Amino acid sequence: MIDMIEKEDTIISEEEAAQYDRQIRLWGLDAQKRLRGSHVLLVGLGGLGAEVAKNLILAGVKGLTLLDHEQVNEECCQAQFLIPVSARGQNRAQASLERAQALNPMVEVKADTQNVESKPDEFFLQFDAVCLTRCSWKLMMRVDQLCSQKNIKIFCGDVFGYHGYMFSNLGKEHHYVEEKPKVRKITEEASDGPEAKKAKVDPNETTMVKKTASFCSLKEAFEVDWTSDKAKKSIKRTPKDYFLLQVLLKFRSDKGRDPQPDKFTEDSERLLQLCEDVLQSKGLQGDLLPQDFTSYCFSEMAPVCAVVGGVLSQEVVKALSQRDAPHRNFFFFDGVNGSGVVDYFGRE
Fold first, then answer.
1. Who has greater pLDDT, 197 or 124?
2. Cα–Cα distance between 75 and 136 in angstroms, integer?
3. At what angle do helices 302-321 and 47-59 cross, to 10 degrees?
4. pTM higher than 0.85
5. DSSP code of 11?
6. Among the residues of the chain, which ranges form H helices?
7. In terms of Cα–Cα distance, which of 55, 69, 133 is closest to 100?
8. What value does the mean pLDDT take over residues 194-212?
9. Longest Cα separation, the chain
């Protein structure tokens, strides 16, 4: 028997019941109560962060903290719909606050203008879920390890041009319920023998099935030994974006920024060199990624932010409400080839 985690003293008022009527009908009152008792930290208010913020606020979490220390620039205004055009030069979290709060007055939306890198460990422990976008590899590793130890749901995501990804770590034991068609035994009269009991699926009746999923850490997900026989056999079915992501995160770590359109030639050359270095360090062929990948990984593209942000926020909602099977543990979106792939990496 699996005990579902309940939020203490979470009561849905009549006003909230009316506001969230569609969602309650969709995934049930208990799931909405768990969602309404949850506090989420969202780091990074770029185009992807805006999509995630919008969806979580409309879904009806208890509280959402928007954290970003950077200022609004021209590129941000192109993909970030929560920031007014007149807010250029202002802090991104603060500039997003008014429109974000207007989406749903029942959600407590706060803006934090400090640098996430300077936050102590205790800061992250006050949340039920932490969602990191536009963050350094070092910070993601630190927060993932910390949250894993404290049973806090951790999500990471980014958009690089036509490409985007989402990673989730819901812990060693994540409990959830899933709606399944009800199987019932029907007794039929056999013409030439005794009664036979047959199990049949009734599409008009459903039952809730309790399940458990186990997740690996971010570190484990990237520490795959690609020289092993098992890993070699899986290379062909591994999304190329899994390796591209590591190249882009390495670029971010080295440069302290993402590839910029106004530095296309310089950044493209650096990306090609990093691609060779990263793949060789893993014992992989340098031609695993196409040579023209650098043409498709600059800036945040609004349509890609919408797709990846929709998936990412939905996974946060599912994790907090403990309703439906979660993605385990990566989602990759390739806008060049028009594909979205869910895949698992790490120790089984």
1. 124
2. 19
3. 40
4. yes
5. -
6. 14-19, 21-27, 29-36, 47-59, 74-79, 92-103, 121-124, 137-149, 218-222, 229-234, 240-255, 264-281, 302-321
7. 55
8. 69
9. 84
In the predicted structure, residue 1 carries a pLDDT above the cut 50: no
Asked whether 211 and 175 are in contact (CB, 8 A), the reply is yes
What are the percentages of helix, strand and coil residues in the chain, rounded to 5? 45, 25, 30
Token couple for 304: 């890609």
Mean pLDDT of 234-253: 93
Q: For tokens 């028009």, name the residue.
A: 338
Strands 153-160 and 163-169: antiparallel
Q: Please determine, for residue 3, whether its predicted confidence score (pLDDT) is greater than 50.
A: no
The reported pLDDT for the residue numbered 205 is 75
Determine the average pLDDT of the residues in 303-322: 96
Phi and psi at 239, nearest 5°, equal -55, 135
Strands 339-343 and 330-334 turn out to be antiparallel
Over 80: is that where the pLDDT of 77 sits? no
Q: Which residue has the tokens 């009734």?
A: 202
- 3-state SS, 34-85, equals HHHCCEEEEECCCHHHHHHHHHHHHHCCCEEEEECCCECCHHHHHHCCCCCH
Q: Which of 145, 143, 153, 147 is nearest to 40 (CA)?
A: 153
